[in-house]
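User: Round two. Same drill as before: sequence, then structure, for each protein.

Assistant: Same drill it is. First protein:
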Amino acid sequence: MPTFVIFDLEFTTWPGAMEQDWSAPGQLREIVQIGALRVRADQGERGDQGERGDRGAWGEYSVVEEYETLVRPVVNPVLSPFFTTLTGIGQRAVDRDGLPPARALSDFLAFCQGQSVLSYGNDMLVLGENIGWARARGEEIKHNVLTPGFLNIRPWLNTVAPATAHTNSGRLWQVLGLPRPAPGDEHSALFDCHSIAAALRHLSAGGTALPEAFL
C-alpha cells in the first residue's frame, strides 16, 4: 500500500516578522524544528465494477513512522523570546540537541525519498531557502530535494472543509471538532503533522479522500 509524508517546520521569527514577510534586515526563516509523519494510505472498498466506493479511492490513513529533529540556526543562533513563547522550544534544547542544518536537512530528505511530501502551506519554500543557504556556506546536502514531490495541500483542504480556511495546521483538529491527535500543542512541528493527519483521516471517513494525484 502506498505511503506519503506529512511535514511541518518551525523557523526563526520575531514580533511582526510574518506580517512583514521576514523582510527586516537579518530576519531569515532559519529552520529550528522539523516534524514529519510517514502515512500509509489503506485502500478503501470499491464497487463491484471498480468504481470508487463511498470512502473514495483510499480508505484511511495510518501513521507508520515519525521523524522529528531540532536544528541549530546559523545566522541567528540565539532564539528570540517571541519564538520561544510561540513554539515552546527553548535555547538550551536547541544548543544541546540541535543538529547542524546540513545534517538535519539531509536526514529529512532521506526520510522523504521516493514519496509525495505534503504540507499545509508552502513550507517547501522555507525548506528550499535553508538548503540554498547551507550550500552557499559550502555544506553538502545529501539527497535531491526535487526527488520527492513536495505539495501544498492547504488550498484543497480549505476547499473541501471550509471551516479550516482561516486556521493554522496545529488547529485543524480543533476546528473540525476532533479529539486531540497527539500530546503537545500547536507550533510544535510534530504535533502540527498529527493535526494534519487527523484532518485527512476525518475527511476520508466522511468520504472525501486525498486526490490520487497527491499520493
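Second protein:
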Amino acid sequence: MLFNSINFVIFLPIVLALYWFVTNKSLKLQNALLLVSSYFFYACWDYRFLFLLIFSTLLDYFTGLKMAEARTPAIKRSWFWLSVCINLGFLGVFKYFNFFAASFAQALSLVGLHTSPWVLHIVLPVGISFYTFHGLSYVIDIYKDRIKPEKDFVTYSVFVSFFPLLVAGPIERATHLLPQIKRERHFNYSQAIDGLKQILWGMFKKVVIADNCAYYANMIFNNAGDYSGSTHVIGALFFTFQIYCDFSGYSDIALGTAKLFGIDLLRNFAYPYFSRDIAEFWRRWHISLSSWFRDYLYIPLGGSKGGTWMRVRNTFIIFLVSGFWHGANWTFIVWGGLNALFILPLIISKNNRNHLEIVAQGRTWPTMREAINMVLTFALANLAWIVFRSENIGQAWDFIAKIFSRSLFTVPEVMPVKIFVLIFIFMVIEWMGREEQYAIARLAIRRPRLVRWSVYYAIIFCIFYFAGTDQQFIYFQF
C-alpha cells in the first residue's frame, strides 16, 4: 500500500476514526488497533512475508526476556548471539545469497573454473532491512543493559511494525519510541495540523519533484549510450533530486502520519543538499541509519578515540557496510567506498565536525565561502549518486567518462524546462525553511488565514497538476 495511493487515502481515515473515537478510552485497545492495522498494511504488499515479520518480532521479544532472566553472562551472551545470527541470517538469505553466489562464481572463473551459480528465485520482503535493524537495536540495548525488556508483546510488536515506519523507516530506537507507545495518548489539535502539513510537503516532494525527475533520470540512465555528456549531467542531477525528494518525501509522510496518532518519530533528513562538506552531508542524510551505524558499529569499533589508522579503518568499515546495507550489488559497495574517500581528509585533519548547525543560521544568505562549499559538496554527492544509480560498475564508469568527454560542451538532447523550474521553486522553499523540521513548518504562519490557506491550496494544486508518472518509493527495494 503506497502512501500516494487511493488505498492509503481510504485506509488512513478509517484507522484514525477507530483510533480516536472507538478505542480512545483504552491504551491497550489503541495499541491493538495499531498492531492489526500495521499487519494489514504490510499484508497488502505481500501477505506471504507477514510470517517473517511476526517471527522476527517474536524472536527479539523472547530474546529480550531470556537475556533479562539469564543467571550468567554466558547464557545472556548465548541468547544475544542467537537473535543476532538468526536476524542477520534471514537478511542474508533473502537479500544477499544470490549476490554472494554470483560473486563466488565470478571469482572462480578468474582462475579458470567455470560454474553456474545456484541462485534463489525469491522476492525480497519489503522493509526487511528496516524492521531487522529495529529488532537488532532493541536486543543490543538490552544486552548492554541500556534498557529493560518490554514485557507486553503487543506494545513491543507496535514498536517493530508501526505502519508509518514499517517499510522504509526511519529506523527507530526502543528508548525513543517504546515510551510513547506505553504512554496514554490524547488528541492534540496542533500536533495533528503539524502532521497534515508535513504530509502535504512530503507528497509535494514525492509526486511533483521525485516522480517528474524519475521519468527523465530513468530515460537517460537506461539509454546512456544514446546521449551526450551534457545530457548525462542532467540525468545525474535529476536522479540526485529524485532520490532525495523520494526518500525524504516518504519520511515526511511517515512522520506526519505518526503525528496524527500522537506519536513523534525520529527525524530522518535535515536539508542535506545545503551541507558544506561530506561529513555534514552524512549527518543530515538518512539520519536514523547513519546514527544507527555510529552507535552500534562505529563506536564499538573504537570510534575516533584511537589513532589515525583506527579512525580511517572504522570510517571505511561503516561506509562499506552502509553501502552493502542498501543492496546486493557492487555499485552500492563502491558508492560507500567513494563517500569514505570523500570524508577521509576531514577525518584525518579532525575537521569532520566543523559544521554542526544549519548553514547561514539566522541569516538570509550564505557567505561566498559557504556557497562554494555547498556547491562542491553537492557535486561530490552527485558523482557518488551516479554509481549508486547504475546497474553495474561498467555502466557507472561509462556514464562518468561521458561527462568528462568533449560532448559535455554540446547542447543537451533532453532539457525539460518545466522540471528545472519546479526544482528551483522547491529549493527556494527548502532554503527559506531550512531552520525548521520540514520546509513549510512555519511558512506563512504569521500571515492572515487567507494567505496561509492560499499557500496550502497552491501546493495541493501543484500535486494534482504537476504530478509526474507514478513511481514506487526508491527505498522500498532496500
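The chain has 17 helices and no strands.

User: Perfect.
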